[in-house]
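Weekly structure sync, notes
Attendees: PL (lead), two postdocs, one rotation student
Agenda item 3: pending single-chain targets
PL asked that the sequence for the first pending target be pasted directly into the notes so everyone works from the same version. It is reproduced below exactly as submitted, 145 residues in total.
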Amino acid sequence: MKEKLLISACLLGVPCRYDGRSKPCSAVLALKERFELIPVCPEESGGLSTPRLPCEIVGGRVTRCDGKDLTPYYEKGAKLALSLARENCCKIAVLKEKSPSCGSKWIYDGSFTKTLTIGMGITAKLLSQNGIKVFNEEQTEEIEL
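Predicted structure, written out during the meeting:
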């Protein structure tokens, strides 16, 4: 039986990003040879529609480009992602970098100018705080169990 990995659904080709598109990643798709992939979109799970206006983390809160605070949706999605990971005994997650949910090393700085800053998205942080190793789509070769 293959070990299970939690994966950002957009990296598997599911059109669930804020812009209604996906970001399929061949390196992530190749992981299915070694692992069972468990897709998740914390933003949709948290109750947000697709497509949706862009959001960034501003002062620890997830704010939409029009100023609306959507933090509760992101927190709900993060908790559901953690539950899904636990239900499937996932020790590792591969999440979409730069996302206010899934970014593990880089997120946008909250200025809505496409400026990156070091940081973690809401889901990536919650998973990491609960012992799940979080990688991004550029780190698939580093994944070992």
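Discussion points:
- The beta strands are 3-8, 35-40, 55-58, 61-64, 92-95, 106-108, 116-118, 133-136.
- The longest helix spans residues 71-87.
Action: rotation student to compare against the earlier draft before next sync.
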